[in-house]
Amino acid sequence: MDSLSSSSLSPYYHLFFTAFAFIISGLIFAFSRKSGSKKLNLPPGPPGYPVVGNLFQVARSGKPFFQYVRELIPKYGPIVTLKMGTRTMIIISDADLVYEALNTKGQIFASRPRENPTRTIFSCDKFTVNAALYGAVWRSLRRNMVQNMLSATRLKEFKSARDLAMDKLVDRLKAEAAANGGVVSVLKNARFAVFCILLSMCFGVEMDEKMIEKVDEMMKTVLIVLDPRLDDYLPILSPFFSKQRKRVWEVRNQQIQTLVPLIEKRRRAIENPGSDKTAASFSYLDTLFDVKVEGRKSSPTNAEIVTLCSEFLNGGTDTTATAIEWAVGRMIENPTIQTRLYDEIRETVGDRKVDEKDVEKMPYLNAVVKELLRKHPPTYFSLTHAVTEPAKLAGYDIPTDANVEIFLPGISDDPKLWSNPEKFDPDRFFLGREDADITGVKGAKMIPFGMGRRICPGLNMATVHVHLMLARMVQEFGWSGYPEEGKVDFSEKLEFTVVMKNSLRAKITPRA
Ligand code: HEM
């Protein structure tokens, strides 16, 4: 997911390409020849320049990175190499190869690559579930997150946080519609609702809307500075990026200053039970204060706790909200889907508020959400993998310093695996014509949460959030297009997740 987006490079590209690329290429080429490298049999890929490799071809294409990759597949096959400066990127887009890597050879492909300097700062040198190398730190942090926060029992305990967030969402939509002639932004509101749930699970302290918005703004700023830069791929250029490096530290300090007071507030509430009447009975923070990490004697520092909390908030916010945006787009495009959803909700719950417990009794809703995650996986690349030792895949070498990327739509849009994959058709699941195991245990047909050892630990919680939010939004409002005469534009853009290029606005009508 930390793949390069051409937009993040374009401001630098014009500045640097002509002036520096070839001079620097020559210099580093001379250096690298001295050190001598073993000839590897890497997967095929477009020819590139010495040292810079394909970096500038990607940037100059003007296409989002996922689009660039999509166009490479028919030319070079299901496993492709891109040389991105000093990084070798190997992209896998075929179900069998992905299954072989993440299941059959799962242990070998379960690590993460080295970080760029910005990510090293924000991950506290890989002290997070998602960035940790495959090993003791990862095991400890992941076990803590899964067992103490994301197990089925724990999830149930946070039901009231979800109910509250859903009520807030409905109120916000009503208020926005009232102020804008019935028109609302979909992504922004969905994002806010899911962020409220995660915030309350994470910090266990009450926050007013102003504080929620402050934390949200700060998280967005972090995501912006985490966008890859040219010097991440060509470290020799780093002297030209001192301003950006300074900015990274500013944002990191701002992140710490925003979140540490919340951490301290919770610490005080735990140390003095009963002192804070608004404190929740349990939160992710509580598990972090004294988490035991194999190979470490001390508890995490405040800076490390900031990092771990941010991971929890970031992992589940944009991903879930993105799914909702595409869902509403599809319902507007095909009003029959919306009618069938609404009829199912009414048949199942009558006049009362739809609840997460009702979801399992709604096969059509389940089919819509599954088709949504097939056709619009919120991230097109799983998080970057790396091998723990030199490996082979499809007869090619996979070196330990390569970034291994899994291109998810390559699988879920594959006409060899799906009939009519281009069509958004919940009936493929509802009528049982097709099926897939989204955990990838039985095969990789659609794996929006990845698969294998690094599969998203938030899978269960995320699917509860998507089902519940969609059901509630359809129960409360009728959704139609805005502007009314226009067709929904399903173009995509990369913004951490793959969102609608023109952020979806919809007209809502409260149900009678
Ligand atoms: C619709 C919502 C979500 C989607 C589509 C999604 C997708 C993914 C994907 C594709 C990966 C990478 C798997 C791999 O490396 O092969 C991942 C990892 C991860 N996700 Fe999610 N995710 C979602 C929600 C969440 C939520 C709600 C949380 C927790 C609050 C979360 C936390 C994480 C973490 C910590 C990892 C790293 C796991 C590891 O490296 O061991 N995600 N997710």
Coarse morphology: globular
* Rg, nearest Å: 23 Å
| Major sheet attributes | 3 strands, mixed
How would you state the average pLDDT, rounded? 92
For the largest sheet, list the strands in their spatial order.
1-2-6
- Head-to-tail CA distance between termini: 43 Å
The distinct bound ligands, ions and cofactors come out as: protoporphyrin IX containing FE
Number of strands: 10
| Count of discrete alpha- or pi-helical segments spanning 4 or more residues | 19
Regions with little confidence, pLDDT below 50 for 5+ residues: 1-15, 32-36
Element order, helices and strands? HHHEEHHHHHEHHHHHHHHEEEHHHEEEE
Helix fraction, binned, reads 40-55%
Backbone structural class: mainly alpha
The share of residues in extended strands comes to 5-15%
Keywords: Heme, Iron, Membrane, Metal-binding, Monooxygenase, Oxidoreductase, Transmembrane, Transmembrane helix
Protein name: Cytochrome P450
Transmembrane segments: 12-31
Main location: membrane
Commentary on this structure:
Its cofactor is heme. The protein has 512 residues and is mainly alpha-helical. It has 19 helices and 10 strands. α8 packs antiparallel against α9 and α14 (302-333) packs across α15 (335-349). The longest helix has 32 residues, at 302-333. The radius of gyration is 23 Å and the shape is globular. The chain starts with 5 loop residues before the first helix and ends with a strand. The structure holds protoporphyrin IX containing FE (HEM). Residues 129-130, 142, 311-312, 315-316, 319-320, 323, 378-379, 382-383, 448-450, 454-458, 461-462 line the site of protoporphyrin IX containing FE.
